Amino acid sequence: MRGGVVKQEQRGEQLPSKEEYLALFEKEWAEIHEGKMPEIGLKVEGRAERKETCEDVKLKNREKGIFLVADGVSSAKGWLAARETARTMYELLGESLDKQIENNLQEALREGEDPVERITSYIGAQITTAIEQAHTRIQAMAVQPEFKGSATTLSMAKLIDLPDGNGGHLKRLFFANVGDSRIYVQRKGGELQQVTQDDSRLQLRVERGEITQEQARQIDQVEDPSSLPADLRAYARGRAIITKSIGLGDPTEGLGVFFLDLQPGDRFVIVSDGVSDQLVENQIEASVNGNLDDAQAEEGLQKTSMEMSLDGRHPRAKGDDISALVHTVEETGQRREYLRSEVRRQQTEETLQATVRKLKEVLAIARERVQRADKELQGMDAMMPKRERISLMLEKEQAVEQESLYAYHLEKTQLDLFDQQVPPRFEAGARVDMWRDDFDPPSLDRQPWTVTAYDAESKTYVVRGAGGIQKEISRYALENVQHGLLVRVGDTIPAPNEMGAMEKGFKIVAFDTDGTVVLMKEKEGVVKRSRMKAESANEAFFGLVYRAERSKNGMDHAIQTYHQAKERQQALKDEAVLIERLESRQRALDLAQEKISAGNLEKEIAKMERRLQEFKTLEEEGRFRGLSSQKEARRKELALLVYGSRTTLSLEQLLQQKKQELKNLLNGE
């Protein structure tokens, strides 16, 4: 429908009537939105009369990983802006973005880049672009007087499963916010936390330094604004006024696209201000915690908010549309079958072979880096400070981590190529032989097992045996123990060339009646043909399966090496921190000792100066008036110190020496 709307605008024709538009949108949304629709708000809190049109839109589509709440600005025909924004997000950030992500992933691997870093940057840019396009679309439609000024808030999230480089996946939640709808995240067993920042007049006061962030939160979360300190009440009156929206102004100015890595069991909540202006954060958290089912949690939040609106007596009550969206992160993530078929179509033998070549190049570079680091470690001086030694060891482990990452992707891509050249042999329902390590001695099970499924991502069959026992087994381990002729037309296997040597890349085109296999290979316009016995072709197939099993083992080894390198890095970092703490403590002790030493020297110097001054005073007094016998004895005692002897320094010399010692100590020499 969206394309039609834009074309009508370009021709200067009228949009469909409001009734037609809303009916078509409702039909479209029923197919893509999961869960409860928003609650139509009251015209005025405390009165049961509902508004004519709901200006909130929710979208929850787990398959495409897109979640949003758009709250149309009531005074500006916001129902249109909210719906067009939601539609734009779905079109640009749903299936379309998923396919672009997969393309970027494959390109990153071919070019030796970090796929997670590349995709993270790409998604952030695409979310910003989608918001810009929604803004442009609304402004184009708002040339008609009845839609002038149409605007909306938006809180949106995109949940993506990204490869973590060690055989697993990151469940990364990207999110952005325009206006005062909100996103909260609750870690499994943890507290609910707001992760977006409102574009509101209250937040603007914080940015201008008029109030602190803590005071703004106090204003936002107070149940009765009249209970606030007098100096904050004035700020509470304008807290709900937004400073940014899609459709008016520039929604991308200062826009931040953020991400969090979530775990299974974590939840996120998106609400319009129809919820967050009425319920304080601990009420939202209590309602979510009271409903483990997401749909019930959504219904609970919307129902509680509506009850407050209907009652109307609570200081936070308001007559507004109400939207709440709750999603719990699942273990398995999105299946996205539409993406799987697209990936299978795009990953031709040619692209996979190019990826293998590129990965071999970057893996060789990574291995050289490991070897260099190893050589530096072996050649380092035994007296090298431990801090520098740890730095070199850390550099080596980082190189090992990078090497194992590329090794994993190389083995994985080679397995993808194998699946292209020699597709899995068995479909659901096939009867297969099963090796039993749990038998004594290990042997083939006498009873055949039944294949129930094959997962192309993990390269594993799910098989069921007698008594309903179910197991997962790698494709290669299973196919390697089968008997009979397993090669098929279409398989790409090594075959003898015109010189009689085995050459890769021949495709089976037919089985002849004489028990031979006909094969062909085309490269750069040159066609080669070959024949071989079916049994020999079967042996070639099993040779490929054996090599594929080695690649799978290599993949597993790379994962293990990756984890070990990460663990060693952490241990080295911890050791470096410990050394820093010990050195810091030693510096503090040395400084304290220096202070003690300096204090002692200062006391010695002061004592020497007093004695010198005392001697000078006695000398002066004796010259003019003479000294008593007691004072004369004291003068002679001091004279021995002041003038020194053949074996001792004079007091002046000792004083200069002590002053130099103090100076050196204070200068750290």
TrEMBL record:
<dbReference type="InterPro" id="IPR036457">
    <property type="entry name" value="PPM-type-like_dom_sf"/>
</dbReference>
<dbReference type="InterPro" id="IPR001932">
    <property type="entry name" value="PPM-type_phosphatase-like_dom"/>
</dbReference>
<dbReference type="Pfam" id="PF13672">
    <property type="entry name" value="PP2C_2"/>
</dbReference>
<protein>
    <recommendedName>
        <fullName>PPM-type phosphatase domain-containing protein</fullName>
    </recommendedName>
</protein>
<feature type="domain" description="PPM-type phosphatase">
    <location>
        <begin position="39"/>
        <end position="329"/>
    </location>
</feature>
<feature type="coiled-coil region">
    <location>
        <begin position="349"/>
        <end position="383"/>
    </location>
</feature>
<keyword id="KW-0175">Coiled coil</keyword>
<feature type="coiled-coil region">
    <location>
        <begin position="555"/>
        <end position="621"/>
    </location>
</feature>
